[in-house]
Amino acid sequence: MYRIKNSKHLASVINYTNLSNMISEAEMTEFLNQAKELNFNTATINPTYVPLAKEILADSNVRVGSVIGFPLGFENTESKVGEALSLVENGADEVNTVINLNHVASEKYDLIEDEARQIKEALGDTTLKVIIESKILEDEQKANVVIRLENANVDYIKTSTGFLTPNHIYEIVNDINIFQKYAPKTKIEVYDGIDIWKMAHQVLTAGADLIASNNGYQIVSKYKELRENTQIKPKPITLKK
Amino acid sequence: MYRIKNSKHLASVINYTNLSNMISEAEMTEFLNQAKELNFNTATINPTYVPLAKEILADSNVRVGSVIGFPLGFENTESKVGEALSLVENGADEVNTVINLNHVASEKYDLIEDEARQIKEALGDTTLKVIIESKILEDEQKANVVIRLENANVDYIKTSTGFLTPNHIYEIVNDINIFQKYAPKTKIEVYDGIDIWKMAHQVLTAGADLIASNNGYQIVSKYKELRENTQIKPKPITLKK
């Protein structure tokens, strides 16, 4: 059983995410201030607001993540590399991309490895998280994909874009098992409709390194309320001699 | 009332579209052969298969369209321009992009004009279609956007990405009215769940220059069956003297 030590620890394994494409600067500022207040691992946002995030999160430990080739993943490799470099130039610490699922449909797995490698080489030390969109893949396809992603030295394999119906907890555990078996050295991030701390706990217990959630603020706040702000004063206990 | 002369004419105003992100090369080949068979105005497909489309459609009049900044539109302008150039290099005749809706939310309409202009200038003679995703905009926002797109000399204003619930025919007519009033010189393409020829007819009657549909093949085939393959032999009529 994964041990969540306290609310700070919980926030440190959450990627607080908002990938809405129609969010005003004022709303995004509020979101980023929440990320800063609770000191999440990462704030992942759309490319438009990467410079704003860099500014607001400058004096914090919160990493700035954004997305390329998102959410469909069918852009040319050359375009994805260009997008990635433009995010880094704007200050992103992490880049999330989606595999080209057409190549899965045509069983051209080598093209998936080649693309991941090209993006990772362009990014250098910047973290690369590659989303496989597990909801629409068969287990055999997932295994074939993650082997190639580990070969390409990506930093994280991530389950979902968050734009499809989220997987059930059993499907998430199945995904983690497949990732651990076929890409044992690569870290795992799960982004799959995690909206309460108990589900976060289940996913971490199953072996995820990070969870991404649009509800990070509520998850940590609720955990804090339940575990740290509860005023339980136990009655004195006299032990038997 | 728009007059559809025959099935060839109907196909000439349809952009046959397939923007699935998980389609094999064999399936895409079948789709492109359908586009060629009925001689559609355009085949719009994902970037992966632009070179294949160029090859299959080489000796036809069917234009090859693809997408950038799709379907969320929140990429940096620099990235969108890079994607556009990479599509042209692969042989695309048309580029579809989505406005950055964050700028609508923040009422930064000038940034929308500026981006459209930069993409159009990079594209030169290649057709630029700009999608406003009308489903999530207020009428006032639509008017403000389309004025700027006309200023930027885009070739078409397009209603939707096709990734949201499609608009009702009344909403489509309302959109066309707004486009005609605030961007009178720019052509109009409607992509909004048009799946039968009667709806195609309604949208063309309302003033659309082109309709985009995933069901182009079925629309034209059905029209052909109903209007051209029907064996009606009228009885001889003797007119009164």
Short characterization:
Chains A, B: InterPro entries: Aldolase_TIM, DeoC, DeoC/FbaB/LacD_aldolase. Two copies of one chain form a homodimer. Helices cover 45% and strands 15% of the residues of chain A.
**Number of H- or I-type helical stretches of chain A:** 10
* Helix-and-strand structural type of chain A: alpha/beta
Strand order of the largest sheet of chain A: 1-2-3-4-5-6-7-8
CATH superfamily of chain A: Aldolase class I
Order of helices and strands of chain A: HEHEHEHEHHEHEHEHEH
Chain oligomer state: homodimer
Please bin the fraction of helical residues of chain A. 40-55%
Low-confidence stretches of chain A: none
Structural account:
Two copies of one chain form a homodimer. Chain A is of the alpha/beta class and 241 residues long. Chain A has a single domain (7-227), classed as Aldolase class I (TIM Barrel), CATH 3.20.20.70. Chain A is 45% helix and 15% strand. In chain A, helix 7 packs across helix 8. The radius of gyration of chain A is 19 Å and the shape is globular. The mean pLDDT of chain A is 96. The interface between A and B is large, with 36 and 36 residues. Chains A, B: One of its GO terms (cellular component) is cytoplasm. Chains A, B: GO terms for molecular function: deoxyribose-phosphate aldolase activity.
